[in-house]
Amino acid sequence: MFSPPATTGPGRRARRAFLADGTLLLSAGLARGAALTPAAGLSFGLVTDVHYADKDPAGTRHYRESLPKLEEAAERIRAAAPAFVVELGDMVDAADTVDTELDWLRTIDRVFATACPDRHYVLGNHCVDTLTKAEFLGAVGQASSSFSFDRGGIHFVVLDACFRADGVPYGRRNSVWTDANVPPEQLEWLAADLAAADGPTIVFAHQRLDVATDHGVRGAPRVRRVLEDSRRVLAVFQGHSHANDLTTIGDIHYCTLVAMVEGSGAASSGWTLAHVAPDGTLRVEGFRRQASHDWPARGSR
């Protein structure tokens, strides 16, 4: 069942986008009625689909290499002194036993912890294949799988689509990855949370909200309608399908980030740093294989 998410703050903004040649520059305009006043600017880091596991490669996935890849990303993110970092799901790959999975999770989380003290985790389907949600969240020290928080005049929302169509949460091999859903109770909370916030918003998810494929959330149009009706949401950052992608639906940008696990060698990695300037410009830098984009302010289109 869906449990009420924790709220650790509200804030907000709005925007626009076009691809640049290497630095995801997102110039955040103001959502209707919203104010963006980050006094000294704001930075945050993003990684996704690390899939760490102490096992041999399978196809294009090089599980053990995610450890040194994340070490490099954490070092670069730490040097930027971000306000927080987010892991967008599938931090670990599935193990045969709970103890093994928890050991892999603690190993990779020790590396992630060096990036920034303020860390947030989005649940991916692989995170709660062998483990339950309570086990994963307990290991990383996070109270809830869906919640919101505020930093620098911006509101941030973390969603959890790891629920079956019947509302049962993923856990202990009770689900299939193509059956991803945001339950009605979480949608109700989301609508209320967005209505209560008073600034531009960025949303973090694992499964995609912009496609009707196996990588998408079932009923994604209902989720998008809540986001669009709020007139607050600037962008959604998501993972799951492992490749760079960017779509715009209902004036909201859906940015799919590249998976860290894919490919061998440091050059095959990918991560992101986003920088929000006092004037509302959001510059998101893509590193290694991660694409970069430029989203001009709404008022400058």
For the termini, the CA-CA separation is 43 Å
Q: Based on helices, strands and strand pairing, what is the structural class?
A: alpha/beta
Overall form: globular
Which architecture does the CATH hierarchy give at level 2?
A: 4-Layer Sandwich
Tally of structural domains: 1
CATH topology, anyone? Purple Acid Phosphatase, chain A, domain 2
- H/E series, N to C? EEEEEHEHEHEEHEHEEEEEE
CATH class label: Alpha Beta
The CATH superfamily appears as Metallo-dependent phosphatases
What level of helicity do the residues show? 10-25%
DSSP summary, beta strand count: 16
Task: Jot down its keywords.
301 residues, alpha/beta, eight-stranded mixed β-sheet, 20% helix
Would you give an account of this structure?
The protein has 5 helices and 16 strands. The longest helix is centred in the middle third of the chain and has 15 residues, at 98-112. It is globular. Helix 2 runs parallel beside helix 3. The chain has one domain: Metallo-dependent phosphatases (Purple Acid Phosphatase, chain A, domain 2, 4-Layer Sandwich), CATH 3.60.21.10. It has helices at 66-79, 98-112, 133-140, 184-196, 220-230; strands at residues 6-8, 12-13, 18-19, 23-27, 42-47, 84-87, 119-121, 147-151, 154-158, 199-204, 233-238, 245-249, 252-256, 270-276, 281-288, 293-295. The termini are far apart. The strands form 2 sheets. Strands 1, 2, 8, 9, 10, 11, 12 and 13 form an 8-stranded mixed beta sheet that branches. Strands 3-16-4-15-14-5-6-7 form an 8-stranded mixed beta sheet, covered by helices on one side.
